[in-house]
Amino acid sequence: MKKKLFLIISLCMLVLSLAACGEDPKKVDYNGVTYDQLQSSSQRLINSLLELTEEDVAMIKQNSDELTVNLVLKWETLTPQAGEFKDFGEFSIDKSGKTLTTSQILDFTKRDITLTCVYDYQNMEISDITLDEIYTLGETMQKAAMNTLMGMGTVFAILILISLIIWGFKVIPYLQQKAAAKKQPQIQENETRTSEIKALTDAVQLASKQQEQAKAQTAQEDDLELVAVISAAIAAATGTTTEGFVVRSIRKRKLK
């Protein structure tokens, strides 16, 4: 029993000693810059934003660096929704590795805003500045629910699309067969027409060939008759017969 009690007391003292080792951030030296200086820097920046006029904003957009322009644009976007500025809220510092991050809460009438400045710890120069809205627990839960619903909806939509694609693999062959069956009579009809056209062409060519042969034969018979007539005329003129005549050639002459 005494050993257990001693162990419990030792654990309590250890926890208290660890808690006591935590440094007060307001007393820590951040590479030559104090807590109050960092807080004042953030508050001065907010005061400068509050005092901006339309002419100042136009001049900053034209002549300032990208970091400042983005900060002014973000300020113009958030402040109309946040309402009127009331006061500065909690200020905190977070040191992590080679960076130092400060957070300044700004109290507005409708919605609070957080100014976050990121410093390079080696030279304590600002590398990034952001302004973010602070949402209530209900708004955060509502956004989380909406994100969950959107994620689940996207997953179900993809699953439905995949199911439709798989179902389409079964339907596509059926549609292809149906389309092929519709095209088959047309293909047969085209083949029949092609055969008929080919047969008609062959018949025309055969008739033309026969006609040419008939013309050639007729021309040959005409030549033989002409030879016979000429031979008979010569024989009658000379008083002989045609048996001794031999026709070597027949030449046509143009009449003048």
Brief overview:
The protein is an alpha+beta fold. The protein is 64% helix and 15% strand. Strand 1 and strand 2 (99-108) form a beta hairpin.
Task: Describe what this molecule looks like in 3D.
It is built from five helices and four strands, in the order ααααββββα. With 256 residues, it is an alpha+beta fold. It has a four-stranded antiparallel beta sheet with strand order 1-2-3-4.
Could you give the topology of this structure?
Layout (H helix, E strand, L loop, with lengths): L1 H19 L14 H16 L3 H10 L2 H17 L2 E12 L2 E10 L4 E8 L4 E9 L3 H102 L18
Antiparallel strand pairs: 1-2, 2-3, 3-4
Uncertain residue segments: 2-9, 12-21
Number of strands: 4
Read across the widest sheet, the strand sequence of neighbours is 1-2-3-4
- Shape, per Cα inertia axes: rod-shaped
Largest sheet: 4 strands, antiparallel
**Structure annotation, total helices:** 5
Structural class: alpha+beta
What is the share of helical residues?
A: 55-70%
- Element pattern in H and E: HHHHEEEEH
Strand content: 15-25%
**Rounded radius of gyration (Å):** 55 Å
Q: Summarize model confidence as the mean pLDDT.
A: 79
- How far is the first residue's CA from the last residue's CA? 160 Å
What keyword list fits this structure?
disordered N terminus, four-stranded antiparallel sheet, 256 residues
